[in-house]
Amino acid sequence: MNQLLAFKPRSRRQFFGGSLNRTLSGRSLLAVFTILCAGTCDALEPSSDWLGFRGDGRGVATAGPTTLAIGDDGNRAWKRSMPGRSVAGPVIVGDLVVSTSSSGPDEEDLFITGLNLSDGVTRWEQRFRATGRPYFHPTSANAAPSPASDGERIVAFFSSNDLACVSVDGQLLWYRGLGRDYPKTGNDVGMASSPVIAGDTVVVQVECQGDSFAAGIDLATGENLWRIQRPAMSNWSSPVALSTGSSSPTVILQSREDLIAVDARSGKVQWSFDEGRDAIASATVVGDRLLSPGGDLIAYRLTGKNETPTELWRENQLSPRNASVVSDGERLYSLKGSVLLRGDLETGEIVWKTRLSGLGSTWATPVVAEDRIYVFDQTGLGLIIQDGGDEAEITTKVQLEEGVLGTPALANGKLVVRSKTMLHCFK
What we know:
This protein has 1 helix and 34 strands. The chain is mainly beta and 427 residues long.
């Protein structure tokens, strides 16, 4: 899975113009996604907060540090030890940073910790006991999914399928033991799909070889709104929420067997493709474009809430390895092993690709601010890559004390990175 990509693989890009509207078929693991844009599309201006996995789902912020350096003369503002291990990315709400952890012999002790973004001082911490199976791969942790926030509440999910909702001041609002409610869920290498907040609904993908399902849970009460069966196979990709201009957003679910769009509040299926997608990397929504990874990266034009999307192009070189694609609305970036590629969002053409010397296995999705791409690997090596337009250059290298598997957070010009047992803030 982590083998280095040959630098010049055979390209297999196809471009679809006009109003071609089709359902895909074939044996290769393709990528897809779709929906949105009923009336108006999501704004391309990044949020000032970082409210979930990849922030607003694109992995883009307005500003970030120009270098990464530790030591007396460095720009690491603070570093804090956390109460356990984690491979989950943090979220940022104003001056609050929230990170999850798990500890103990079987990592059955679960933590949600809120800290000041400004100085790293802990504001509050909630501790729970896992109610489901705390199984995970040795390189992972029970604290694997990234939390999500609506700006007022924080929803934290764990590999044991424990789901907790707390207020931004750390008060427990509700708790669900989905592993206890549905004891045949889980897999031996761990669950890692991050929850998404879509309007007033929390959507989770609990997909595995056993009792495989997706569910919509009321954000206010923690009660099930709907639950649908999903293909019985392991899946670590995360759901994607799409604003359709209606009172109920749409959520995209993908697996190695299908792709479906469901109404976030009712769970009603709006459309589906009976074809496998990527089970690790997640889709990316950028304005009226939806990018889906798989054997190819496929770009779709988003149309109406219940309308099948239109395929625009596909390019196999741009489909990522483990990390998801990020895009600012013009440029898209894809990481394949140690090779970073920039593509054109409109055409799927490759603008440049560069090998990132020294980069090891990567699970964290890159994040972007202005013309800078921030990449971290499993050893803790961090890079800043400067996008020069027609070429790229590594401008910064930093080696953290331990490995990074969770996607960093960017907000208010600061980069917050969760390593195995520590939280780091660069300014």
